[in-house]
Amino acid sequence: MDIVMQLVRAKSLDAIVKGEGPLPPARVAAIGLDLLDALRTAHAAGVVHRDVKPGNVLLPPNRAVLTDFGIATVAGDETITQTGAIIGSPAYLAPEQARRQKASPASDLWSLGATLYAAVEGRPPYKRADVWGVMGALLADEPDPPRLAGALTPVLSGLLRRDPEQRIGHEEAERLLRRAAGSPAEASVGFVPPDSLPHLTQPRPPVDAPTHPPQVTTVPPGASCGRTAGGPAAGRARGGR
Predict the structure, then answer these.
(1) Burial class (CB in 10 A: 0-12, 13-18, 19+), 222
(2) What is the pTM of this model?
(3) Which residues are catalytic?
């Protein structure tokens, strides 16, 4: 099978944060909307990315592209998963994945939250001395409270809920991201426990932000061609002998 994809010449989110430091909340919210569009389309097709992280996000002008579906799974196909193996990057892994449970769309949404946290805070949600410390914290501790997230804090609180059943979904994440994208970057909101999130998010109506076109079209198993992550930004994949 041959795969053909568009070359995207852009720095990764990881490289930009390392070079520039933490990004403004409104800018991170706009990035989050593009990534959420990509994940929503992938999940609708039964695809779970399993490795959403800043290193897999490219930032060409005025858009964000989710890349590297190399360890993604399609519903009903777990052939690339090894027994007992933990697949993904520990700093951005959902707690249920650390417990060796099957990854789900909710797991990708945790990783999205961790990615946005890293972009706005300059570090992942769990800052520990080594990978074992990260894994231990992921299994037992709440994420470290953000200090710089401002208007982005409600969506981080909702996405980084340890119980996947309590984690916010695509629609609520989009609503909160649109609000954050239209809010002043210097807005200050404290980290909110998940149980009190509705009290924070209900009083103010959402602020419209620029429309973000869908960024991903995935290829169903057996299809001959289709688009990969990022829609027009990420290129095309073609299957053939």
Answers:
(1) exposed
(2) 0.69
(3) 51
